Amino acid sequence: MAKKIVLNGLDCFLLPQKVLYIPFYHLLVVSDWHLGKMKHFRKEGLFVPPVEVEEEISRLELLFQELTVERVILLGDLFHSDWNEDWTAFALFTHRYPNISFLLTRGNHDILVNAHWAEARLQIIPQYILAEGLLFSHEPVADLPAYMFNIVGHLHPGCVVRGKGRQQFRLPCFHLKNNVLTLPAYGKWTGLHILPKEDNARFFSVIYDEVVEIKEFI
């Protein structure tokens, strides 16, 4: 179940797939996928679990079927490092949806050459701004005007919550503080950056197929 929040009068939905959806603009926002990460580590001789990129792609394709999507903004760190065959799978995916535009606000891991971006129908932009004052970028923008909201990635935000029997769970979350909304990393094996509880911050954690605002956590 999605969680609705309102930013500058615009309905925004935090989805359990760890993405943001804005119905008015038919806009889906995905952050920090880190495609190719496991293949990159295996190439370097590290033992890591196999990850099927098609599984992560299929999650987006299911959303394309459930929602009206005309534009996808990828908030940086789309591909983890140098080219590998995961990029081919991603390019095939984007070409299956010629009526959807794909934009990338480049992050620090996005080092592929322009020919690879073009192969996947990606438009590279420094940032993207909606009329309501929502600004999308990989990292927070310095000196953001007070009337604007910055939608960012980069951090892979998470929080620690306590369960029954003194159990503790590390969970990915959407983090809203002042006028910055940080999205969780979309990729499965990206890790979490645990953020501290603060009075002026809100945490919306992904728990199975639901997004829940967390008010009591460690």
Automatic annotation (TrEMBL):
Residue stretches spanning the membrane: none
Name by which UniProt lists this protein: Ser/Thr phosphatase family protein
Gene3D superfamilies assigned to the protein according to its UniProt record, in alphabetical order: 3.60.21.10
Source superkingdom: Bacteria
Residue span(s) of domain Calcineurin-like phosphoesterase: 26-143
Organism name: Sphingobacterium spiritivorum ATCC 33861
GO molecular function, one term: hydrolase activity
